[in-house]
Each structure stands twice: as structure tokens, then as C-alpha cells.
Write a structure and sequence with these properties.
heterodimer, A: 238 residues, alpha+beta, Ubiquitin-like (UB roll), Alpha-Beta Plaits, 2 domains, 5-stranded mixed sheet, 3-stranded antiparallel sheet, 6 helices, 25% helix, 16% strand, globular, B: 182 residues, alpha/beta, Rossmann fold, 21% strand
């Protein structure tokens, strides 16, 4: 692996040439907002929150899936980026039925926190109000599609941390949604090990432990880190 | 200096935001010296007055009467504040929107026919019972809203922060957790 030098927000930094812009920024203590990124699983660039400006490239690029190159000049916090991040968040809120006041994750939600950190005090677009159901067939966990932002963290945690491959994305466009096994009710999905890693990975209240009520659904990410550390460092430590 | 002419009203809300306003406690006494409540559910004025400085509007737009009032308020008010999540996002009242195109009929059927033990029938009196909108919407889908004060309800400290800035003649800025939904 070769070492490269690049510039992030006027700061000269060195990194390995296989690293993503996001991981380099994080090492340097430069905060780039993310929603679909989850430590321990590969990045997919689904949420578009981590968009950055790269000199010489007209379009904005997601920091999580953009590999750093020698001499790259990156800006992570400009007026244009702030504008687009806000638009992205507003569209996420408009797409499904997010009602923070009655959500299990109220106060512990990454979408909610991201919205106020990015200065979103209202949504300028018409809300879609789609009809989505809940899956309450699993004995321990529930899924509320109304609160899903399709970040696919649950899918990646299920496939690549637990290795069960129960969760998938089905459909296209606005009708994309998370399914279990071959689009069976979660409770009948035979590949599910009921490990709960998807629930711990979810940034919103879309996946939750049954029986939790407004504001009660808090995540314990150490249940994911444990396996990831074991795999990457061969150490069985929590 | 003349006291600021302040109005408050609630549309499709639970009155929780108004309760949170009352949670301002002793600050209400300071406020009384600086503002005059010219229209509100807590005073007995029937008609919305002219030349109002600030109006706090709680609740989403659920029926035709809400929309008519909102238009009158916009004409006669300098600073219009969407007061709480229902006014800002639609919040809980919008949950009927996801029930489909006939949700305005279906929710009334459910409440007044299916679940009624006595006197089954949908209340209907032209000019008295307002017609429900096809879908519940936040204020800014109909009129220009000057300030957004999210929260379900907005905590008293958040309301105070906004009012203090308005009273000092600033254009209010709420940031960070002060614009948290829910």
C-alpha cells in the first residue's frame, strides 16, 4: 500500500491510497455528517449526507465511497454542501412518515439529531404520506417501514457481521423497502438468527425491540463492535 | 414603548404547545409588561384584530375553517410563527393522510359510526361543523411562515428564547437542539 498526500479543508494530510475520503477525514478529526455509514461494514453511499467537493470534479462525491488519490483537494464544509445536505435531509423526512413525537427512537435517533445539527427547522417539500405497514411477526423485534430511510445498515450488518443474509432491499425507487428472506414475514424468515444486530445498526426507529415505547429504543453498538473487532484484530474484546 | 401585540391560536393540535407556553411560569409576569395578548384561546376575543405583531399558531391545518383563519391571520399579522411540530410538520394529525384518498371520510366513519355506541352518524351542520381537508398539511403549504418553532411541545425555554429575541427586535435564530422535532 502506497502513501499519498491530499488536502482536506486546507489541511495537508497523508493517508494510504486504499482509504476513503471519509475514513481519512475521520482520522484527522474532520467531521463529515453521515447516516448510512456504519463502522465495521462496507460503505454504499446510500444516504448522500457525506457529499464533499473535490477540486476538478463538477459533481459532488460521497466521501464514504470515494477513494483518496494523490494530490486530491477536498472541501467538506461549504455553503453549497450545507445547502445540499439540508435538501437531502428534507427529502428523507418527506419520503416516508416520520413522526418524531410518537417514535420509539425519539431522542436517540440519528436522523432527528442530524436534522437539527444541519439547521433543518422545517421541510420545504410536500410530504408524500405513503402507505407502509409494520412487520410485528417476529417475537422480539419489530420493523416500521414508515421510519425507514433505506440506509441498508441492517442489510449490511445482517450479511457481513452476522453472516445470516436475512435482510435485503426489494423494489425500485420510492417503493424500495427492506424485506426478510424471500419477502416473508420476519417471524417466518428461517435464516434469521434473532441476533438483533440489525436493530442495533438502525439509525432511526424503523427497527426496534418489541415492547419499547416512545423514546425508549436506545442502541447498543458494542454488540456490533465486538464481532468487528474480533474479525479485524483477532481479539475477543467488547 | 407600546407593548407588542401578540396573538395565539390553535388549529389541529392538542393544546400542548399552549400548555408549554403557560410553563413559562414567572417569565409570564415579565412578559405581561411587554406584550398584550390581543387574541388567543385564553382571552375572550371572537374576531381576529388588525395590526398584530406576532401570532403563535399551534396545530396542523385539518379543515376548511383552519385554512380560512390562517389566511385572515396572515393578512393582519407581521410575524407568523409555526408553533410546535403540528404547525411545522403536520405531526400526529397527518397520520390519517397515509390512509388513502378517502381518509377524510374514513376517519369520520370510524369515529362516529363504527366506534359509536349511541347516536351513530357523522356530525353535519353547514356553517357550523367545518369540512375536513382531503389531507392534513403544515402551515407553510398555504401561507408564508416567518419563524419555525419545532417541538412536541416546544419546551418553555425554547419558547422563551424565541420571544426574548423577538422582543429585543432581532430576527430570531434557533439552532441546535432548539430546533429538535418531537
Amino acid at each position: 500500500m502506497a502513501a499519498i498526500t491530499l488536502t482536506i479543508d486546507d489541511k495537508q494530510v497523508s493517508a494510504e491510497d486504499s482509504q476513503s475520503v471519509l475514513s481519512i477525514a475521520q482520522e484527522q478529526g474532520i467531521a463529515i455528517p453521515t447516516l448510512c455509514h456504519l463502522e465495521g461494514v462496507y460503505d454504499v453511499g446510500a444516504c448522500r449526507l457525506c457529499l464533499v467537493e473535490v477540486a476538478g470534479v463538477n459533481k459532488l462525491l460521497p466521501a464514504c465511497t470515494t477513494k483518496a488519490t494523490e494530490g486530491m483537494v477536498v472541501r467538506t464544509d461549504t455553503e453549497r454542501l450545507r445547502k445540499y445536505r439540508k435538501i437531502t435531509l428534507e427529502l428523507l423526512f418527506a419520503e416516508r412518515n416520520h413522526v418524531c413525537a410518537i417514535c420509539v427512537a425519539n431522542g436517540h435517533c440519528e436522523l432527528q439529531t442530524m436534522a437539527y445539527n444541519q439547521g433543518m427547522d422545517h421541510v420545504r417539500y410536500d410530504y408524500c404520506f405513503p402507505k407502509w405497514d409494520m412487520d410485528l411477526t417476529h417475537e422480539r423485534f419489530g420493523m416500521d417501514h414508515n421510519r425507514c430511510i433505506l440506509c441498508a445498515r441492517c442489510v449490511r450488518a445482517c450479511w457481513h457481521i452476522e453472516g445470516a443474509g436475512t435482510k435485503n432491499v426489494a423494489g425500485r425507487g420510492a417503493r424500495s423497502h427492506i424485506i426478510t428472506d424471500m419477502f416473508q414475514p420476519w417471524g417466518e424468515a428461517e435464516s434469521c438468527t434473532s441476533c438483533g444486530k440489525c436493530v442495533m445498526a438502525c439509525p432511526t426507529g424503523a427497527l426496534f425491540e418489541r415492547g419499547s415505547t416512545t423514546g425508549e429504543m436506545q442502541r447498543d453498538r458494542t454488540t456490533l463492535e465486538f464481532i468487528v473487532t474480533a474479525r479485524e484484530k483477532k481479539q475477543w474484546i467488547a | 414603548m407600546d407593548r407588542l401585540r401578540v396573538a395565539t391560536i390553535w388549529f389541529g393540535g392538542c393544546s400542548g404547545c399552549h400548555m408549554s407556553f403557560l410553563d413559562l411560569d414567572e417569565f409570564l409576569i415579565d412578559l405581561a409588561a411587554k406584550i398584550e395578548i390581543v387574541f388567543s384561546p385564553v382571552v375572550d376575543t371572537k374576531e381576529y384584530p388588525a395590526a398584530v405583531d406576532v401570532c403563535l399558531i399551534e396545530g396542523a391545518l385539518c379543515n376548511e375553517e383552519n385554512v380560512e383563519w390562517l389566511k385572515i391571520i396572515r393578512e393582519r399579522t407581521r410575524v407568523l410563527v409555526a408553533f410546535g411540530d403540528c404547525a411545522v410538520t403536520g405531526n400526529v394529525p397527518t397520520m390519517r393522510n397515509a390512509l388513502g384518498l378517502n381518509n377524510d371520510v374514513n376517519v369520520l366513519d370510524r369515529a362516529y359510526r363504527e366506534c359509536a355506541d349511541n347516536n351513530q352518524g357523522i356530525p353535519n351542520e353547514a356553517g357550523i361543523v367545518p369540512t375536513l381537508l382531503k389531507r392534513v398539511i403544515p402551515l407553510h403549504e398555504v401561507v408564508h411562515v416567518d419563524l419555525f418553532l419545532p417541538g412536541c411541545p416546544p419546551p418553555a425555554g425554547r419558547i422563551k428564547s424565541l420571544l426574548v429575541q423577538v422582543l429585543e427586535g432581532q430576527s430570531p435564530v434557533l439552532e441546535g437542539a432548539n430546533i429538535k422535532f418531537g
